[in-house]
Amino acid sequence: MNSILYPARAETSPPSKADLTVLELGMGWFPEQAGGLNRVYYDLVHSLPAAGVNCRGLITGSSRSQDETGGAVRAVVRTDASIFERWRAIRAAVRQTFETEDIDLVAGHFAIYCFPALSTIKSKSFVYHFHGPWAAEGEREGARKIATVAKAWIERKVYRRADRLIVLSQAFKTVLCDSYGVDPLCVDIVPGSVDCDRYEISMSRREAREKLGWPSDRPIVFAIRRLVSRMGLEDLIASVSELRQRHPDVLVCIAGKGPLSQELQQQIESADLHKHVRLLGYVSDADLPVAYRAADLSIVPTVALEGFGLIAIESLAAGTPVIVTPVGGLPEVVQGLSPELICQSSGPSSLAAALDGALSNPASLPTSDACRGYARANFDLPVIAMKTKAVYQAALK
Question: What's the predicted TM-score (pTM) here?
Fold first, then answer.
């Protein structure tokens, strides 16, 4: 990881007198363990102290989190330990924390790691950050029925124990209430956050392309997704067959890893799109702001279960417009900037039409400055930290 672009913020310390102390039960440490949940957790435990919230965290993984936060966040067990070992370690660590720290409130981020601590935290106010329907996502990606049922049971136990729940969008509030029977009055919408300073790099688009070795004379569309079916990457690749008829030099760069990698490459070859679509594989966290900046526009082609779409905000923070499908919380992310950024529907034809409109008439898209200003005003770390703190305080009343 490039420390210049994304420094470990261990030097960030809480104010001399915090308003409250919160125990944050997470999953893993970003970027040691990638993923939207871990990124949200990482950003929160670094930004909440400046808002007057003293954070203590428990996760799984290595000692990296402890080293980078001066012990504020610690991994209590290896990620590859058995689930029962992880449960025992988490329960013991929560109990120990209560004995040594004056904890006002517990905040959870991953149901399976909150579950073993439910009896231990029963005397504390509890806020749960709902990052997505865990069981439903697993089912969509091919999990066994028995695993799906068990996950859903654990989720209900955890969600119904919470005094308040935080969701990333209205779409996820609907999922939480309709699928899990949660009282809507207990749910608060707090969108995801990004470190806008990190993405607002000084490179021009040409300089960014030179750094990455991307062509300077072609329109480039960038997508970063985990390579699984619900992300809509098959539709995106299929859309290029139609899009290249209008834009014969278009290039779509797809970053990410996942089980569909080989299948997607075969799709590209079968459609003779190897000159128009590139699978980049893993793009380092240091290069990600550069990749957004290098593209003419980004796209989020999701077909199901997208609660927010943090990558859309990352692209805007880098000054690059982003096209999204009308799925889950994605429209909520960009509606306030420009409704023109929302596709009419998901699917190859709709994606091709939206990309064609954007590439044919770039003046219709928000400017780089407009994208950055919108991201900073609505999703920057300090903004979201204060909204999160307000929910925490409400749970204590």
Answer: 0.86
